[in-house]
Write a structure and sequence with these properties.
The chain is α+β, with helices and mostly antiparallel strands. The chain has three domains: 65 residues, no CATH class; 36 residues; 112 residues. It has five helices and four strands; from the N terminus they run H-H-E-E-E-E-H-H-H. It has a four-stranded antiparallel beta sheet, with no helix packed on it. A hairpin with a 5-residue loop joins strand 1 and strand 2. The two termini are 76 Å apart.
Amino acid sequence: MSIVAVSRWALWVAMIVIGAPELWAGTLYYRYPSTNGTVVIDSSVPPEAVPRGYDVIRVDGSVVRTVAPQLSGAERKARALELEVAAARAEADAKNRKWDESLLLRYSSVLDIDVAKERAINNIKVRISILKSNLSVIKQQILSNQSEAAELERRGEEVPSALMNTLASLRREVTTTEQHISGRLQDLDEVARDYERDKDRFALLQSQAEKRLQYYSSDD
């Protein structure tokens, strides 16, 4: 045994025999895997071993701190993807919880949802009817102004710029109103689809509640 090894062994024995905790209680060691898979315990970690991760331990083997192994590029990408999927799942779960809470607060039965759906659709249809009525009035104004402008041209008179500006403004109103009508027609489909989704979800919640009730009733 070398002189250095003997000295270390003598010191270790002395620490135990003398029982001086102040000499070794605060000493920390490092436990890390070697390249061949064995576990190494030393007073320091070689730089090349740091990426493999290590534990900081006390003399009695208790762990003070653990440094996780560094991930490779592929592992980092996989981990990032895993975190994204978990975040998306958590977000979807949160939205479903809010949706469920809203349904249970607003409705007591599927029939309630049917009534609400009919009311919402009727409201949209009323707005569409008003828009179509406005569109008819605007188009009548355009025809009247066009007739006035044509009559002036037949008489060889210049069409006033105010009349031309009015016609241009009315045509823009026609375009805007037609876009609004198209949007409300799309709303009809979306609202109907949303209420059907609400009905399906509410029916599922009701079914789950009934199953739980049956389960607890059978236990009694």
